[in-house]
Each structure stands twice: as C-alpha cells, then as structure tokens.
Amino acid sequence: MGLLDRGLEIKTPAQIDLMRVAGLLVGQTLELLRDACAPGVTTGRLDELAEEHIRSHGGIPSFLGYGVPPFPATICASVNDEVVHGIPGERVLAEGDVISIDCGAIVDGWHGDAAITVGIGEIAADVAELMRVTEESLWAGMAAARLGGRVSDISHAVETCVRSQGGYGILEDYVGHGIGTQMHLPPNVPNVGRPGRGPKLVPGLALAVEPMVTLGSSETDVLEDDWTVATADGSMSAHFEHTFTLTPDGPWVLTAIDGGEQRLTSLGVPFGGR
C-alpha cells in the first residue's frame, strides 16, 4: 500500500481482495435487511439484524461509535424526508414509507460501505421514480470511471444522469469518499461537478460513490440528535451507495454481490472483477 496525490491510500491487489471480503459482507447484510423491510417492522429491529449478521460473519460494524457524538447504531436508517444518518430505534415502518439503509463493516481492518433505499409496500409513483433515478445515477458514475481519468468524471456523470430526468435536488454538502483502512479517506467524491478535475483515478484507489437525491430542494437540516439529515422542505429522498475500485480490466463494485457485472455489462462497460 502506498500514498500519493495528496495522501490517497493506494491498495495492492491483495489488499483490494481483502476489501472485497468486507464489501461482500456489507452487500449481503443489505440484502438481508431489504428482505426484512415490511410494514410493522421497526428501524431498531433492522439494526439488530444487521449487527447480528455482521458479527456472526467475522465483521465489526463500521458506524457503531463513529464520530462525535458517537453514532449509536450499526446502520443508518433514514425514513422518507430523512436523507442520511438517521438513527434506528422505535420508529415503525408503514405502508408507503421509503427507508434508506446505510451499512458499513470492517473485516481484518478493511472497510466496506454501501446503501440502498427500499420502498415499504406500495409507494407513490414519483417516489419510485426518484429511487430509480438515484440508483441509476450511482451506476452511471461508476461506469464513467476510467484509469487515468479524474474523480470529478464520476461526479459529472452522476449529476448529468439526475439532471436529465427531472428537476430533482442533489445534495452537495454530503459526498462520497475514499475508503480502505478507514471508512472515510481522501478524496471526496461530490455528486455534482465538471469532469476532468480532482485526483487521478489509478489502480488500487477505492471509492464510495453515494448520490443523495430529493423530490424537492437540495437544502437540508441536521435534526436535534446531531446526526439525522433531513430535507429542509420535507420532500422525500433517496440514497444509494457502493464501494468500487478500478482494475486494468474495468470497474469492480466491491459491495455488489456479483461485483457489479450485470449492471456494468448492461451499460456497455467492461467488468473488472476477479
């Protein structure tokens, strides 16, 4: 592992393989939680399931105890107008809600980080479309990454995808990030921007890309718990995230169960996994 370009953490292929183990655990945990989401389930129950699954598979929750004040849970559970960093607890999910679940795990010192947004029962058509656009923009961002390119190529692709499909709000104050031996490392990965800027994309750089998109304004407020970020206008939101890296063959999505092969191939992008 080496450091270059203002302190970026560059992993060896063997270290990326270790990150894949952590990434798979995150991906599998999120699939477990997706299946558990239903009317009547509390966000606290989802958190219990996540911690049990991560620990029983040799991992440590990345979020638990993180930051100031220390985050008190294994997952972030953000419902409806809550965009990110929601604290799970006694809230009961109801028909028509959407919940964004952000999950991180550490295995042998290496981090994985990903997020999904799940509809509870039947949801409004505009909210379902918001979710589709947000997830599509995540994949567009990763698909735009090329060795020798720049970080903002990802940002530009995310923004272009969202802007081309409606008047959505894209959060600018909260961004993706580098990841590896820590959950948050340089560089920042914004969800808006012009291409060709920022650090160069090189083998061994791992990034977490995470568009956060709303049906209304991009303005947000932090609630009294000092963690939960909610839309200022009360509009619904969606959040999707994956950890990925670039190999000489193409992108490899470390937190996707199949490494991202299906979605990348559908976008005409070579799959770089192994």
> Roughly what fraction of the amino acids lie in strands?
25-35%
Calculate the terminal CA-CA distance, rounded to whole Å: 19 Å
Shape: globular
Give the spatial strand order of the biggest sheet.
10-9-11-16-17
Residue-averaged pLDDT = 96
> Please, how many domains?
1
Helical segment count: 5
CATH superfamily: Creatinase/methionine aminopeptidase superfamily
Largest sheet: 5 strands, antiparallel
Q: Show unreliable segments.
A: none
Q: What is the annotated CATH architecture?
A: Alpha-Beta Complex
Determine the fraction of residues in helical runs and give it as a percent range: 25-40%
Task: Give a quick set of tags describing it.
single chain; 274 residues; alpha+beta; Creatine Amidinohydrolase; 5-stranded antiparallel beta sheet; 17 strands
Layout: helices, strands, pairs:
Blueprint: E1 2-4, E2 8-10, H1 13-36, H2 43-56, E3 60-61, E4 75-79, E5 82-84, E6 98-107, E7 110-119, H3 125-143, H4 151-163, E8 169-170, E9 176-178, E10 185-189, E11 206-209, E12 212-214, E13 220-222, E14 229-231, E15 237-239, E16 242-247, E17 250-253, H5 261-266
Antiparallel strand pairs: 1-2, 3-6, 4-6, 5-14, 6-7, 8-12, 9-10, 9-11, 11-16, 12-15, 13-14, 16-17
Helix pairs in contact: 1-2, 3-4
Give a short overview.
By secondary structure, the chain is an alpha+beta fold. It has five helices and 17 strands. α1 runs antiparallel to α2.
